[in-house]
Amino acid sequence: MSPLEEPTTGPAPPMSEYRRREQSITLSPLPEQLEHGADGSEETTQELLTLNFGPHHPATHGVLRLLVTLQGEVVRDIKPIVGYVHTGIEKTAEDKAYWKVIPVVERMDYLAYYFNAMAFCGAVETLVEVEVPKRAQYLRVIHLELNRIASHLIWLGTSALDLGAVSIFLYCLREREKILDLFEMSSGQRMHTRYFQVGGVIEDIPTGFAHKLREFLKVMPERADQYGAILSANEILLQRLRSICPLDADALLSLGVTGPLLRAAGNPWDLRKAAPYSSYDDFDFKIPVGTVGDNYDRYAVRLAEIYESVKILEQALDGLPEGPHITEDRKVALPPRHELATSMEALIHHFKLVTEGFRVPPGEVYFPIEGPRGELGCFVRSDGSSKPARVHMRDPSFVNLQAFSHMAKGAYIADMIATLAMLDPILGGIDR
Amino acid sequence: MPDATGLELIGQELGDSVLDTIFFRDRATLVIDPPSIRSVLARLREKGYSFMSSLHGVDYYPEEPRLGVIYELLDMRRVDRITVKLRVPTSAPEVQSVTPDASQDAGWPTANHQEREVYDMFGVVFRDHPDLRRILMPEDYEGHPQRRDFPLGGEPVIFTCNDTGTPRSSE
Asked: Over the stretch A253-262, which tens digit does the pLDDT of each residue have?
């Protein structure tokens, strides 16, 4: 035996912890045979390259890691690896009273905080059977739709940035700043506002909010027109988006994809229309749909949704009914501050609520709403105590990510980046 | 949602595989025998519930059987939801995976990541799942953190300063 040959017997060299973890990640087998190389012809043989992409990469929109198998420049397989920002929010929620869960669930999908709070509050309200006053429902719609616009603006800015358009990012953030100012006005916080409460909203909107919102609503459609003018007729953008990585509605449905991605493929499924919650049936708005479900349709649908959200906002502001902003049920909502000085009853309720919280009848409820990225459902199980026994968010980003490898297989790696941008995954929502 | 009568009808139609029907807060739930999960979902798909909107795990500690898997199905044409629930004990936490296509019924590809999450968080093993690995926790993590008897907190942060084997700069 020559010294260069490896010995066939003897213990295997110890594998380092890093290598062991690396090898424990299994790659799925290639879906198709390579076009050339099976016959052994030397010049056409192409080697497969496995490329690690992320987790820290500006184009992954968060801490997403992709193991990409490439044949030349063509993507043959993608394995998304997630969990880098897993913070155990669902576990944390089990240790908190119901009203203290709201701030932690808001931090899941950090661009759609009002939606997370809405899904959770909706589930708890169904369990407790508490009636939400009409004014609170309208105030919720106002904040949800503002949040939808803000989320789409971040998506539009960062996606355009990925495609090489830099200035649009600054324009989008300029408008988002206006929305955050409005959030700050109504709740004191710009993000993760804890504005939605079980039974309504924490405070009525302050004086001047309506005026400022109207100013914003006048400006926003013009600005969206400008974004459209910059992007929709841009030759580079069109070439990067049109008929790139399409996926038809049936495939999307079997993968559980909802939201703008499904609507881009021509299926007008929108929970705001199909199963209205929080008085969405009072408003007149349209659902933008695409035709083929390529990247251009995904872009166009989201841009059109901004206009529809503005329409809803105008109607909600015009028709904002008078009345209480939170339920009068003192068992779930804090009594007004001034009552504490005069009413013993109010003091007892206040004390019970801030120490123990309210108790929720045992049961399980799944409450789905239409988030900016698709169906956002909150599952809450109560065991009768004042803390939830299980909180689970069906986050649209988590489910939609499964469609990514189906969309981008066979595309160029540059188109994979564009598709990931159009998929709009929020890693805070995926990892929770 | 099917009303209470509609739920009973579906329950009777599915026969012995349905252990219980729950109608709570206008939401319909079928509690089924764990081995029959694929056939029940296939029958419900024929009835129009062709979209699986969510799949999640629940720990019913201290009740037995402890682990629950919940499938939320949706009929998009009638805008109707039904929940299918099954429970398995921690001693044998095995459920047939609904992700891959089988010989008699088509699979639900959307369940792929969600079954992995339930496996990761609760330790429910999905038989015949194409790629059953942890998804949110690290590959080498021990335990299933969403179980109710799993402690909250108390986990050391993996930094070299917490590692007694690593010499300090002062040493």
From this structure: 999 999 999 9
